[in-house]
Specification:
115 residues; alpha+beta; 5-stranded mixed beta sheet; globular
Length: 115
């Protein structure tokens, strides 16, 4: 079964910002490679097991439904995503966060800024 992975504009903006931040210390190419490696690990996991990551409890507590979170312990980042209507065939990738960032604030921004 093929899984379609859709990166939202918010997610792309967050990864671009993170590349810019890292580029100050390690250079643009190394920063982009670092982010690409994280995304490769995410895609490998999600394309094989879309529901294989833990459900994001923080999102349910504030009433935002069923979101999943991929945690890359090596890079200390979380990728928040949700499954499409046809579970297991479409994934929308929503947020790219450091593990210590407040997810609640980011979810509110996401919901308020999404048309």
């Amino acid at each position: 079964m093929t899984i379609a992975i859709d990166y939202t504009s918010r997610f792309k903006l967050q990864t671009r910002d993170w590349v810019k931040y890292l580029a100050r210390d390690i250079g643009y190419r190394a920063a982009q490679r670092y982010i690409d490696n994280i995304l490769d690990r995410f895609e490998q996991r999600v394309s094989t097991f879309p529901m294989g990551c833990s459900q994001c409890i923080e999102s349910e507590v504030v009433g935002f439904g069923h979101y999943y979170e991929f945690i890359d312990t090596k890079a200390q980042v979380r990728i928040i995503y949700r499954l499409g209507e046809e579970r297991g065939t479409h994934v929308s990738v929503l947020l790219f966060l450091r593990t210590r960032q407040n997810l609640r604030d980011q979810l509110f921004k996401l919901v308020l800024m999404t048309p």
